[in-house]
Amino acid sequence: MKIKYLIGFLILITLILFVSSSSRANKISEEVYKNLGDGKVRVIVGLKEPAPEKGFFFKTQKTPSEINSEKEEIRNKIISQVKEENLKHIFKESIAIEVSEKELNALGGNPNVKSIKIDRVMKAFLQDSVPLINASTLWPKQISGINITGIDEAICVIDTGINNTHPDLQGRVVAEYCYCSATEGEDTYCCLNNQSENFNAADNNGHGTHVAGIAAASGGIKGVAISSGIVAIKVLNSSGSGFSSDIQAAIDWCVDNSSIYNISVISMSLGGGQYNDYCNNDSLAPSINSAVAKNISVIVATGNTNGAYPSATAGIASPACIKNSTRVTATDKNDLIASYAFRHINFSDTLTAPGSNINSTEYLNAPICSEIACSGLYAVASGTSMAAPHVAGAFALVRQFYRLQSSRVLTPSEIQNALNNTGA
Length: 424
Hints:
By secondary structure, the protein is an alpha/beta fold. 29% of the residues lie in helices and 24% in strands. The chain has helices at residues 2-27, 30-34, 64-79, 101-108, 207-216, 244-256, 258-261, 285-293, 384-406, 412-422, and strands at 40-47, 53-54, 60-61, 87-90, 94-100, 113-118, 121-124, 142-143, 146-147, 154-159, 173-179, 197-198, 229-234, 241-243, 263-268, 270-275, 297-301, 316-318, 326-331, 351-354, 358-361, 373-375, 378-381. The longest helix is centred in the N-terminal third of the chain and has 26 residues, at 2-27. It is globular, with a radius of gyration of 23 Å.
C-alpha cells in the first residue's frame, strides 16, 4: 500500500515539474535562448496584470489605484532579485534586464511574469524631396496671419542623435535626451561620457543629423516642416545600432514630455526583422499605443533589403509592423517604389515618400560618410530612413493647418486620411 502511495506521489511530482517546465518554456521566446551565447542575454520581462477583482465569496472591482499599487508591488519584487548593474529600464508593464541562464529560468517560473522576450538590437535604415511632396507650396499659405510651416509643433526624432551646431539646425532643437546602453568600444555606453542615459544627444554617427534635416531643417537645406521644433533622442551608437528597450524608453520620454515641448510627431528610421503581418506582441507596442492614444503620430520606416533579408516584398520591419505605427516606404525621384524598400500586401495603409538620393544635413567627417556621399555639411543618402522624416514633417504641417483652421487636433489616423485624400 505504501509503495502504491509513493508511486502516486512520484507521478504527481513529475506532472507538476512537467507543467512548470512547460509553462516556463511558453513564457520564454526561442530567440532568447538563441542569444545566450556568452552566458548572458538582455531581455524584456513582461509583467502579469493583477486580477481586476478582489474578494473570495463576494467579488468586487478593484480601483485603478489598487491595481496600480499591485503592479508596482509585482514589479518591485522582481527588481529586488536583479543586480543593480543588470537593470536597464523600468517600464509600466515590463522591465529590461540582463540575465544569466539560471536567472532566466528562475524568471520563467515566476507566476508574476507573463513573457520574456529578447531585447533586440535595432539598426538605422540606410541603403548599402521636399518639392516632391508639395510641402514647399504650403509654407506661404497663412491662417490668421500664421504661415503653415509647422509652428508650435515638434517632431521627436529617435535616432543616433543630432549635431545641433549645424547652421541649418541651429534654433530648431528644442530638447534632447539620450538612452543608449549599446556598447561603444570596450565596455562603455554610447551616451556622452560613456553613460547609458543623460541629457546630451550628440550625434557620433551622422544618420540622426541627416534624418532631422529632412524633417525640419531651415537654412541652406530646407526640410519639410521648417518651423517645427526638433526633439532629438539618441538611442543608437556610432555604428547605428541600439537596443529596443532604449527605443521604448525614448518613446515614453517623448510622450511624457509632449505637453512641455508640443511634441505631436515621433519619427523613427530604425528597426529590425521582417514581418508579413501585424506584430502587436512586439515589446514596443504598448509605448506606441500610448503615444497614439495621446494623439501623437508615430512615423516608422519600413526597412530596406540587406544580406539577411534580400526580398523587398516579403514583409516590413519592426516596429513599422505594429498596427498603430504609421509605416512609410520609399520612392525614387520618379515617384516609383524604390527597389530596396520593404513593403507587403498585408500593409496596404503604408505611405510612400521620397527616399532615394536625398540631400540633407550632415557634419564633417561623420562615420556615416564611409557609406554615403558627403560634401562638407551635407550628404546624399538613400533608404526608407529618408522617407519617414518626409512624412513626419508633413504630419506636423497638416496638424498645424487643421489646428489653426478649425481649432481641431486631428488624430494620427485623420492626418493620414487627409494626406491620402490630397495625394500629398
